[in-house]
Structures are given as C-alpha cells and as structure tokens.
Specification:
It contains twelve helices and 15 strands. The protein has helices at 18-21, 46-58, 68-82, 97-108, 124-131, 152-161, 182-194, 250-261, 270-282, 284-308, 334-344, 371-387; strands spanning 33-34, 91-94, 114-117, 135-138, 142-144, 147-149, 164-170, 198-202, 226-229, 243-247, 313-315, 322-326, 347-348, 350-351, 362-366. α3 (68-82) packs across α9. The two termini are 37 Å apart.
C-alpha cells in the first residue's frame, strides 16, 4: 500500500458540490451515483491543503497576483513533465480554461469565421464557438476497431471549404482518451500552417497518461499555438479557478489579453494561486500514486465488462480518467439506454450524444473515485440491464 489512501470514501454531500449536490436541480434522481463531471473524489495533496490553511490564517484576501515563485513552480512542472520551459511574460492567468478558450476565440477570429473541432469532443468546445457567433465546423474522428484516428483528408477539406481560422485541439482527447502521437501532431501543424489556421491546444488532462503512451505537448510542435494548462484536473482544484494560457506569439498574446481585460477580469483568485504553486511544487509523488490507482480502476472496469457485460466495449484510453464506453452492442435505442442508466441503475453519467452526433450509443464515465464506488456503479448497471432483459 502506498502513502496515500485513495480508497477513502469522503462524504461530499452538502459541500456546494456540483457533482453531488445538484442532481435534483439538474433533473436527476437525488440518489444517483455521480460519475459524470471531470471532478475527482480524492483529496488534494496535504501540502496544498496546508498552503491554503496558512493563507487562510493570515486572514487578508486582498487583490493578488502570482509572485516569481509561482512561475518557477510552473516552469519546473512543464519542463519535467512536458519538456518545455515557460516564460512568465508569455503566461496569461485565467479563471478557467474554458473561459480562456472563449476569449481566445473572440480575440483571434471574427464573427462568422469557421472554427474547427474534432468530435466526439469536450462539449464546451462546441458551445464556445456557437456562443461567440462563429461557424461551427466538425471533422469527426474515425473509430477504427476501438481506436480513434484523424481523417486528415476530411480535416483539410473542412478547413478549405469553411473558411476555418482556428482549430481547437484536445490533447489528451476528452472523451475518447487518445494521447496524440508526435506524427499526428506534426500533420496537424502542416495542414493548419498551410491554411493559416491558429491552433488552441487544451492540455488540461496531460498529467493522466497510461502504460507506455507518451504525451507530446503542442508547445513543442508550433510556437504560434495557444497552450492551455491548469492544475485543476490533476490535483482536483477546479473550484479554485486558476489556469494558464501559454502564448509565445506576441501579437496573439496581446490580443487575447485585451479580450480578457474587456470582460472586467484582472486579478486572480488568491487561493487558486497559492494552491496551484503548492501542487506544482510538491504534488508529484501524490500524482504518481494516483495514476497507479486509476490504472487499477481501469483494469477493474475492463475486466468487469469483459466478464459480465461484454456487449459494452471499453474504448481503451491512453490518457485521462474519463472513460469512453461503446454501448451500441446492447442493441437498444439511445433513449432507452440513458433511461436505464439514470432511472434504473441510478448512475449519472455523461451521455455520449452531448459530445457530438457521433457520440450516440456511447457513455462517458469518470473512474476517479474510490474503487468501492466504481464497484457499486457497475453492479447497478449489470443488475439493471439484466432486469430489463437487455443482456
């Protein structure tokens, strides 16, 4: 057994938790097991908690900006984990990566311009394009025997046919779990550069890589890209609202910074700064044990499906703790599938169709929870499918 107890079940009810306290408000049964939003059921490292306590005891929470020590910790993390150094002059702090993506779209494109995404993909990508009155352009990933790949011919054709000015890359990819290989990223660069398309790379899940897969940051591919990084997924800090946009291109950085200022946002959340620095400085051992635990959960769900529900196929993830399940083998409608999952199995998952039309008959499940919760969830699913005579 390691130093950290990830088996501990922590009561998150009545803690203002979006994951646990808002089922009824979102039209779900109150007794569901929530395995949807990308929010882990594990405490952040003790060093992070201690840093927050120390600041809280200081008792003054005035306007705050990160000091050199924050950027030193961030640089140490990116250089050791992603193989690139950051320059603090080229970092823009944001209250969240989705916020940063919205502002980058506004800053770098005009209304009516095409913005390309590769569905199935994180659904705020689509929302950020439509909400900013840009033209949504989709090049679907291709599922080749359970392994998603780009169709680069379609990718380039969509760019040419739709006046695409910007591409939103998700790496590692949420929800299909791909960690894009160097050759794939180079191909993206070749096509986007050829057609003057700016790339925003959301790399928020970069610390969750399995087996022998290797994460390659787009920062090492294209100096003109906007790189989105944050400790929120890695260390379960999403509620502290702190992220970073790394933008080497001076023109792009100036435009994005202006767009952010125009929202009225300026100084960062002080607790977000404190927690992020502590996490990047002291969280590596905790993360290593967490990855081992997540791999154990992944092995469990793979084995369980193979033994008891072989009609549901695990799309083997190369990264992220968000697992993509192909439920088409059950032979039932998407509507009935979601009804059984929610109202019979009492599971709150993310239905695949919210990630794009190609997500129909898929479900996304969050395995970043104590194994006992995952065991209960899968038993509920198995019993419900059996009772409904689906399996």
């Amino acid at each position: 057994m390691g130093k950290y107890n990830f088996d501990e079940i922590i009561n998150r009810k009545n803690t203002n938790s979006l994951k646990y306290d808002y089922a009824k408000r979102r039209g779900k049964p109150e007794d569901v097991i929530p395995l949807w939003v990308a929010d882990m059921d594990f405490r952040t490292p003790k060093e992070v908690i201690d840093a927050i306590k120390e600041k809280a005891e200081h008792g003054i929470f005035g306007y705050s900006e990160p000091l050199d020590s924050y950027f030193d910790a961030l640089d140490s993390w990116t250089s050791s984990h992603y193989n690139y150094h950051i320059d603090e002059r080229k970092i823009i702090l944001v209250p969240g990566i989705v916020f940063g993506i919205y502002q980058a779209i506004k800053a770098l494109t005009n209304e009516g311009d095409g913005v390309l995404i590769s569905q199935p993909v994180y659904y705020p990508f689509k929302e950020s394009i439509l909400d900013t009155k840009r033209n949504l352009v989709v090049s679907e990933l291709v599922n080749v025997n359970g392994h998603y790949e780009f169709d680069f011919n379609d990718f380039e054709k969509k760019i040419v046919d739709n006046n695409v000015k910007l591409y939103l890359l998700c790496n590692p990819h949420n929800p299909v779990g791909r960690v894009w290989k160097y050759e794939e990223l180079i191909k993206i660069k070749e096509i986007t550069k050829k057609h003057n398309v700016i790339v925003i790379s959301d790399e928020i899940h970069a610390d969750f890589i399995y087996s022998n897969n290797k994460f390659v940051s787009y920062a090492n591919i294209d100096d003109d890209a906007i790189i989105c990084i944050a400790p929120s997924k890695t260390f379960n800090l999403a509620g502290l609202h702190n992220g970073n946009l790394f933008i080497k291109n001076d023109k792009y950085r100036r435009l994005v910074r202006r767009s952010i200022y125009d929202t009225g946002y300026s100084q960062s959340n002080v607790m977000g700064i404190i927690a992020s620095e502590a996490a990047y400085r002291y969280g590596n051992d905790w993360l290593k044990e967490l990855i081992i635990y997540l791999e154990s959960n992944l092995n469990y769900i793979r084995d369980y499906l193979n033994r008891f529900i072989p009609q549901i196929k695990l799309i083997e993830p190369e990264g992220t703790y968000l697992i993509w399940l192909d439920c088409s083998g059950l032979g039932i409608s998407d509507e009935r599938l979601n009804d059984i999952i929610l109202n019979k199995a009492k599971l709150w998952l993310d239905s695949g169709n919210i990630f794009g039309n190609c997500g129909k008959y898929y479900e996304r499940i969050n395995i970043a929870c104590p194994k006992a919760i995952l065991e209960k969830a899968l038993d509920n699913l198995y019993s419900s499918l059996k009772d409904e005579k689906v399996i």
